[in-house]
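1st attempt posting a full record on here, be nice pls
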Amino acid sequence: MVAVLPLVATAVTPIQYNYTTLDVPGAVSTYAMGISGNEIVGRYSDGSVWHGFLYDGNSYTTLDVPGAGFTFAWGISGNNIVGSYDDGGFLYNGSSYTTLNAPGASITDANGISGSSIVGDYFFNNGSTYTYHGFLYNGNRYITIDVPGAGATSLNGISGNNIVGVYGAYGNENNGFLYNGSSYTTLDVPGASSTSANGISGDIIVGAYFDSTYHGFLYNGGSYTALNAPGSLSTFATGVDGNNIVGYYYGGGAIHGFLAIPVPEPSFLALLAVGVPAFLARRRRCHP
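the predicted structure (as tokens):
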């Protein structure tokens, strides 16, 4: 039997990030959900319909599954994008859409992708019973992944063999987790009443937690760092690639996407301040 192990970590500690707001032109709400290199995916509302988007650092491209009532883009890996539309999930390779439906499921959501591996969740509704399960799709078959004892499991992000998500009672999924292929580790921000793990890149995990409001967080294996977009009333971190984080925040009466990049540490800046003049002085000595 697989045990769910609690993760003991230090309290939330401050760190500095540079935040860039991401708003699709003309949108009333923008949610940045996934990042791969310089490309970011998410969803936006034009006031009547939800669309997916791809942002390459310069321009936004709308992503709409043909014939769908709505399209959400959740994750990206290289040229491949996953997401949800109507009652199904999808994989988009830059030119065509492939439907993703877990066998027998009422609804399927594709939430994260790493290489050829896709994670998400699926939902059964037989009229009287509702069940919610996570899945890993390897290109050939769907593998159900459920946190032991949980009423509901959702897989949100994947990096190599490591998967993150959220679990709990159905309708009240309030514990984050990390799954390494053999064991589950619970991720709960100290003092929070709920935690959701949303994205992973190597050893870095991002997500959101609630105390009196919502905050994003970064977990590096030893401590949690709070992420709050400047001027926001609530912040959600949803995706990470290397040290760069995407998410969304509520502020100014609207939802905005964001890209957060760490500010270099003062010690590094001090080293540059000392090192560059010294290097230039040495060049002057060597080259009169």
